[in-house]
Every structure is written in structure tokens, then in C-alpha cells.
Amino acid sequence: MASLGRKNQSLSRSNEASDSILSRVSDSSIARKGKSAACDAAYVAKRLMKSTGKAAWIVATSFIVLGPPLIIEMDREAQLNELELQQSSLLGTPASQPSIMSPSF
């Protein structure tokens, strides 16, 4: 029994020593500055993630609303141009290719 009492005393003494070292290290100015920097970095990262998420949501919903009608209209225009080319070749008239940049003299 006496040996158990000694072990408990030695453990409590080592815990006290480690607690005092740990408390001294955690109370140091370097540790406080590190904690403050880590908290600031976490706050900035959280705000950045929120802003990025909001921007991604806006871009995605805008594309869903505006993208498919634009793609469908461009496909219709391409089909119409192809149909006009086929009709003009059947009629024997030379097909006029629409030019993007026509000279204006």
C-alpha cells in the first residue's frame, strides 16, 4: 500500500510539473500571437469559402437560366443556315456565304 501511495504522489508531482510547463508555454506571448493568427486565418478562410460559394451559386443559376435558351437558338440558326444553303444549291443559284467581316468601302 505504501508503494501505491508513492506512485500516486510521483504522478501528481509530474502532472503538476507538466501543468506548470504547459501553462507557462500556453501563456507565452508567442503562443498567444500564434493562436490569434490561427483564429484570424480561420475567420478569413471561412468568409472566403462563403463568398466563393455564393459566387458559384450565382454563376450556376445564371447559366441554367440563360445558357440553354442561347444554345437552342444558336442551334436553330445553324439549322436555318444549312437549310438555306441546301435550297440554294438545289435551285442552282450560287450560295452566298455570310461573311463575318465584310469590307465597307
Structural topology:
Elements: H1 2-26, H2 29-91
Membrane topology: Single-pass membrane protein
Protein name: Mitochondrial import receptor subunit TOM9-2-like
GO biological process, one term: intracellular protein transport
Report on this model:
Belongs to the Tom22 family. Its main location: mitochondrion. Residues 1-17 have a biased composition (Polar residues). InterPro entries: Tom22, Tom22_pln. The protein has 105 residues and is mostly helical. It has a domain at 47-89. It has two helices and no strands. It has helices at residues 2-26, 29-91. The chain is rod-shaped and about 100 Å long.
What portion of the residues fall into strands of 2 or more residues? under 5%
Largest sheet properties: none
Shape: rod-shaped
Task: Indicate the multimeric state.
Answer: single chain
Number of strands: 0
The residue ranges in which pLDDT falls below 50 over 5 or more consecutive positions are: none
Coarse structural class: mainly alpha
Distance separating the two termini:
112 Å
Helix content: over 70%
Mean pLDDT: 79
**SSE succession:** HH
Radius of gyration, whole Å:
38 Å
Number of helices: 2
InterPro entries: Tom22 (IPR005683), Tom22_pln (IPR017411)
Region (Disordered): 1-21
Organism: Olea europaea subsp. europaea
Subcellular location: Mitochondrion outer membrane
